[in-house]
Amino acid sequence: MNHSNQLKMTVYTSLFVAFIAIGAFIIIPIGPVPIVLQNMFVLLAGIILGPVWGLTCVAIYLLIGLVGLPVFSGGGAGIGKLFGPTGGYLLGYLPAVFVTAGISKGLGRKMPSDIIAMVIGSLIVYAAGVPWLKIVTAMSFEKAFTVGMYPFLIGDAIKIIAAAFIAKTLRPVIKL
Length: 176
What we know:
Blueprint lengths: L2 H23 L1 E2 L6 E2 L1 H12 L1 H16 L12 H4 L4 H20 L4 H27 L3 H8 L4 H22 L2
Antiparallel strand pairs: 1-2
Helix pairs in contact: 1-2, 1-3, 2-3, 2-5, 2-6, 2-8, 3-5, 5-6, 6-7, 6-8
């Protein structure tokens, strides 16, 4: 990768870190796991930036939240937030962005493959988040699914469709 492309990817990665942080502030509190837009931006980072830069983006986001910048949902930050009830979802962003990016890239970065990739990415986030929620809060799996996944499925479907359209619009403009 030449210096110009490296700089361009660094700028886009920084922008996506900011988008993910902003998405965490767009919040509807409905219980231990709020509705946020940050997951949409995580998945979008994967399909736009690719596996390496998408993973870098999410790692930077988690790191700046861990060191105390208020970038997690509702302005939260620190190790307590990262290892609290929603920590599994946050940590699940790492494999989710990588897998989402890999699937999207492998299937040709078209809208249907982006949607498939983001659905799988969302399932990875739930696979990390729901058991974590169960353990941290000592609730049953049934309760963890009831408060930590089911209420979000329709919204996630809408966010995935929106992200697919955003990606379709952005790709020709940013030429990645």
